[in-house]
Task: inverse folding
Protein backbone atom coordinates (compact mmCIF):
# COMPACT_ATOMS: atom_id res chain seq x y z
CA UNK A 1 0.00 0.00 0.00
CA UNK A 2 1.42 3.35 -1.06
CA UNK A 3 0.99 6.16 1.48
CA UNK A 4 1.86 9.80 0.84
CA UNK A 5 2.47 11.70 4.07
CA UNK A 6 1.43 15.35 4.03
CA UNK A 7 2.49 17.62 6.88
CA UNK A 8 3.45 21.31 7.18
CA UNK A 9 6.26 20.36 9.60
CA UNK A 10 9.05 18.61 7.63
CA UNK A 11 10.43 16.94 10.76
CA UNK A 12 7.06 15.47 11.75
CA UNK A 13 6.56 14.36 8.15
CA UNK A 14 9.95 12.62 8.09
CA UNK A 15 9.15 10.93 11.40
CA UNK A 16 5.80 9.67 10.13
CA UNK A 17 7.44 8.29 6.98
CA UNK A 18 10.08 6.53 9.12
CA UNK A 19 7.44 4.96 11.41
CA UNK A 20 5.32 3.72 8.50
CA UNK A 21 8.36 2.37 6.66
CA UNK A 22 8.87 -0.16 9.47
CA UNK A 23 5.82 -2.02 8.21
CA UNK A 24 6.57 -4.24 5.20
CA UNK A 25 3.11 -3.76 3.67
CA UNK A 26 3.54 0.04 3.59
CA UNK A 27 5.47 2.06 1.05
CA UNK A 28 5.54 5.52 2.62
CA UNK A 29 6.96 8.71 1.16
CA UNK A 30 6.67 12.46 1.53
CA UNK A 31 3.68 14.01 -0.19
CA UNK A 32 6.03 15.76 -2.61
CA UNK A 33 6.75 12.43 -4.33
CA UNK A 34 5.25 12.89 -7.79
CA UNK A 35 6.47 9.57 -9.18
CA UNK A 36 3.94 7.35 -7.40
CA UNK A 37 0.17 7.44 -7.08
CA UNK A 38 -0.84 6.78 -3.46
CA UNK A 39 -3.55 4.45 -2.26
CA UNK A 40 -4.17 6.85 0.61
CA UNK A 41 -2.92 10.24 1.83
CA UNK A 42 -1.97 10.72 5.49
CA UNK A 43 -2.30 14.34 6.60
CA UNK A 44 -0.63 15.07 9.94
CA UNK A 45 -1.21 18.41 11.67
CA UNK A 46 -1.57 20.07 15.03
CA UNK A 47 -5.13 21.27 14.41
CA UNK A 48 -7.73 21.72 11.70
CA UNK A 49 -6.89 25.21 10.46
CA UNK A 50 -7.07 27.05 7.16
CA UNK A 51 -3.72 25.59 6.08
CA UNK A 52 -5.01 22.03 6.53
CA UNK A 53 -8.26 22.96 4.80
CA UNK A 54 -6.33 24.31 1.80
CA UNK A 55 -4.21 21.15 1.70
CA UNK A 56 -7.32 18.95 1.72
CA UNK A 57 -8.85 21.07 -1.06
CA UNK A 58 -5.69 20.60 -3.13
CA UNK A 59 -5.70 16.83 -2.57
CA UNK A 60 -9.39 16.65 -3.52
CA UNK A 61 -8.63 18.42 -6.79
CA UNK A 62 -5.97 15.83 -7.63
CA UNK A 63 -8.44 12.97 -7.63
CA UNK A 64 -10.61 10.71 -5.44
CA UNK A 65 -7.83 9.31 -3.27
CA UNK A 66 -8.91 8.72 0.35
CA UNK A 67 -7.37 10.77 3.14
CA UNK A 68 -6.62 9.90 6.77
CA UNK A 69 -6.28 12.97 8.99
CA UNK A 70 -4.25 12.78 12.22
CA UNK A 71 -4.63 15.77 14.55
CA UNK A 72 -3.10 16.72 17.89
CA UNK A 73 -6.10 18.87 18.84
CA UNK A 74 -9.71 18.58 17.67
CA UNK A 75 -10.79 22.10 18.64
CA UNK A 76 -12.18 23.89 15.60
CA UNK A 77 -12.62 20.75 13.52
CA UNK A 78 -15.49 20.92 11.02
CA UNK A 79 -16.21 17.22 10.56
CA UNK A 80 -18.71 17.75 7.74
CA UNK A 81 -16.21 19.92 5.85
CA UNK A 82 -13.47 17.32 6.30
CA UNK A 83 -15.78 14.60 4.96
CA UNK A 84 -16.69 16.71 1.95
CA UNK A 85 -12.97 17.12 1.23
CA UNK A 86 -12.36 13.37 1.11
CA UNK A 87 -11.30 12.52 4.66
CA UNK A 88 -12.20 8.90 5.42
CA UNK A 89 -10.57 8.53 8.83
CA UNK A 90 -9.81 11.05 11.57
CA UNK A 91 -7.31 10.09 14.26
CA UNK A 92 -6.06 11.61 17.51
CA UNK A 93 -2.26 11.86 17.47
CA UNK A 94 -1.61 11.76 21.26
CA UNK A 95 -3.08 8.24 21.56
CA UNK A 96 -2.09 6.93 18.15
CA UNK A 97 -0.05 3.73 18.18
CA UNK A 98 1.73 2.83 14.92
CA UNK A 99 -0.28 -0.39 14.54
CA UNK A 100 -3.56 1.51 14.89
CA UNK A 101 -2.40 4.07 12.35
CA UNK A 102 -1.59 1.32 9.83
CA UNK A 103 -4.99 -0.31 10.44
CA UNK A 104 -6.75 3.03 9.87
CA UNK A 105 -4.79 3.70 6.68
CA UNK A 106 -5.57 0.21 5.38
CA UNK A 107 -9.27 0.67 6.13
CA UNK A 108 -9.32 4.13 4.53
CA UNK A 109 -7.67 2.78 1.38
CA UNK A 110 -10.56 0.28 1.11
CA UNK A 111 -13.16 3.00 1.55
CA UNK A 112 -13.90 2.29 5.20
CA UNK A 113 -14.15 5.25 7.55
CA UNK A 114 -13.66 5.91 11.24
CA UNK A 115 -14.12 8.80 13.66
CA UNK A 116 -13.21 9.16 17.33
CA UNK A 117 -16.22 9.24 19.64
CA UNK A 118 -15.68 12.95 20.34
CA UNK A 119 -15.84 13.78 16.64
CA UNK A 120 -18.82 11.52 16.00
CA UNK A 121 -20.68 13.48 18.68
CA UNK A 122 -19.60 16.73 17.03
CA UNK A 123 -20.71 15.44 13.63
CA UNK A 124 -24.17 14.73 14.97
CA UNK A 125 -24.30 18.27 16.38
CA UNK A 126 -23.16 19.80 13.09
CA UNK A 127 -25.73 17.83 11.14
CA UNK A 128 -28.50 18.74 13.59
CA UNK A 129 -27.83 22.44 12.97
CA UNK A 130 -27.18 22.10 9.24
CA UNK A 131 -30.63 23.38 8.41
CA UNK A 132 -31.10 21.48 5.18
CA UNK A 133 -28.80 19.25 3.20
CA UNK A 134 -29.97 16.04 1.63
CA UNK A 135 -32.69 15.03 4.03
CA UNK A 136 -35.34 15.31 1.36
CA UNK A 137 -33.21 13.21 -1.01
CA UNK A 138 -32.66 10.27 1.28
CA UNK A 139 -36.06 8.69 1.03
CA UNK A 140 -36.65 5.56 3.07
CA UNK A 141 -33.66 3.25 3.20
CA UNK A 142 -34.34 -0.40 2.39
CA UNK A 143 -33.84 -2.79 5.29
CA UNK A 144 -30.46 -4.16 4.25
CA UNK A 145 -29.05 -0.69 3.58
CA UNK A 146 -30.22 0.41 7.01
CA UNK A 147 -28.56 -2.60 8.64
CA UNK A 148 -25.31 -1.92 6.78
CA UNK A 149 -25.28 1.74 7.81
CA UNK A 150 -26.14 0.91 11.43
CA UNK A 151 -23.14 -1.40 11.68
CA UNK A 152 -20.91 1.12 9.89
CA UNK A 153 -22.00 3.75 12.42
CA UNK A 154 -20.77 1.39 15.15
CA UNK A 155 -17.32 1.44 13.53
CA UNK A 156 -17.31 -2.04 12.00
CA UNK A 157 -15.22 -2.67 8.87
CA UNK A 158 -16.68 -3.97 5.63
CA UNK A 159 -15.36 -7.46 6.39
CA UNK A 160 -17.01 -7.56 9.82
CA UNK A 161 -20.29 -6.14 8.51
CA UNK A 162 -20.37 -8.86 5.84
CA UNK A 163 -19.75 -11.55 8.46
CA UNK A 164 -22.41 -10.19 10.84
CA UNK A 165 -25.07 -9.96 8.14
CA UNK A 166 -24.15 -13.18 6.38
CA UNK A 167 -23.29 -11.59 3.04
CA UNK A 168 -20.11 -11.50 0.99
CA UNK A 169 -17.72 -8.57 1.32
CA UNK A 170 -18.43 -7.76 -2.34
CA UNK A 171 -22.15 -7.45 -1.61
CA UNK A 172 -21.53 -5.04 1.28
CA UNK A 173 -19.22 -2.91 -0.86
CA UNK A 174 -21.91 -2.84 -3.54
CA UNK A 175 -24.44 -1.67 -0.93
CA UNK A 176 -22.18 1.22 0.06
CA UNK A 177 -21.58 2.17 -3.58
CA UNK A 178 -25.31 2.13 -4.25
CA UNK A 179 -26.05 4.34 -1.23
CA UNK A 180 -23.29 6.83 -2.04
CA UNK A 181 -24.21 7.10 -5.73
CA UNK A 182 -27.97 7.25 -5.24
CA UNK A 183 -27.80 9.89 -2.50
CA UNK A 184 -24.96 11.82 -4.19
CA UNK A 185 -22.76 11.56 -1.10
CA UNK A 186 -18.99 11.55 -0.77
CA UNK A 187 -18.26 8.21 0.88
CA UNK A 188 -19.57 5.68 3.39
CA UNK A 189 -18.84 7.90 6.41
CA UNK A 190 -20.79 10.71 4.77
CA UNK A 191 -23.77 8.41 4.13
CA UNK A 192 -23.76 7.26 7.77
CA UNK A 193 -23.79 10.88 8.90
CA UNK A 194 -26.80 11.79 6.77
CA UNK A 195 -28.68 8.67 7.81
CA UNK A 196 -28.11 9.55 11.48
CA UNK A 197 -29.29 13.13 10.95
CA UNK A 198 -32.49 12.03 9.30
CA UNK A 199 -33.29 9.39 11.89
CA UNK A 200 -33.02 6.39 9.57
CA UNK A 201 -30.52 4.62 11.82
Result:
Amino acid sequence: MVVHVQCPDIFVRAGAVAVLSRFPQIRASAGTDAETVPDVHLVVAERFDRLVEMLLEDLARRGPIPVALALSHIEGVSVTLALRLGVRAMLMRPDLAPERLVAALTAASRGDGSLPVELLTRLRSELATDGGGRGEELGILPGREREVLMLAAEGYSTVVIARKLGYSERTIKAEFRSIVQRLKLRNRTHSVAYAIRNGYI
Notes: The chain has a mean pLDDT of 82.
